[in-house]
Amino acid sequence: MPPIPDESSVAMVHSSPVVKLEDGCENKRTKKNRRRSHHHHGSLKVLFYLLAVIVVASALILFSALQRMTLDSTLYALMNAMLNAEFNVSDIDLVDMHIPQVRNVDTIAVERIILGTLYTQLVNKHGKVLMEIMKGAHVIVENDQGRYYELFKNISCTTYSRISSHYSIDVQYAVPQGPLLDTLLTGRTVTNDSWFQFEGANWDPIDRPIDSMLHVLNYVEYKIRGVQIGPLGTSKHTDRNPLLIPFENTHHYQRLTNTADHV
């Protein structure tokens, strides 16, 4: 008959597995707590980054809104100055403009040439049309066979190729402007008509990151409100509802026709 184990040995035999089970449970609890802690910290990081993006976006939107409060006065001051401007025809396509000094209106050479050309050659000195263009209207010059596209493409040595959300059958070009008009973007339609628009903020993430962030916000506003965001206001004339200017109705076309008749 085998010996009967005493109580102490029985207790040892039965107590060992219990200790191991408790250790295993503790390890599982520790791992779960670590996972929960890691998940909690990850959620806090995501929330922090989200709040940071919201704060930055809100600050930029506020800055943009405050800036626009002065746009109307600047726009009307510019138009009044252009009524007393001197226009000098540099060649068959470009017209330079000299305007008197006006408060809040600071232009550079390329802006004066583009404004002088648009005002006298394209819109035939119709101030309201030019104002709409400076507010960011998407303009299509019908039947010009890409003439204005080529004009803007070669108007400055600072012009560079760029992508955008707008369609063009050819490379799109951005023409950097001064503090007044920021950027002019141009391309060509499927019928070889020139299109262009002034932008409220340039897209150049490397050299102008703040402007590029504003450009993204302007794009979001364009998608939400359905308006173009220009340097001096907003316009209802988007690429889906463009401002159409027939080339044959322009002074530019008349000059070309008269020149051809005298040749």
Could you describe the 3D structure shown?
- The chain is α+β, with helices and mostly antiparallel strands and 263 residues long.
- The N and C termini lie far apart (135 Å).
- The protein has a 6-stranded mixed β-sheet, with helices on one face. Strands 1-2 form a two-stranded antiparallel sheet.
- The chain has helices at 7-68, 71-83, 109-122, 127-134, 147-153, 209-225, 251-262, and strands at residues 86-89, 95-98, 139-142, 160-161, 173-176, 183-188, 194-199, 228-230, 233-235, 243-246.
- The protein is built from 7 helices and 10 strands.
- It is 51% helix and 15% strand.
- It folds into 2 domains: 12-69; 126-262, no CATH class.
- It is globular, with a radius of gyration of 33 Å.
- The chain crosses the membrane at residues 46-66.
- Keywords: Membrane, Transmembrane, Transmembrane helix.
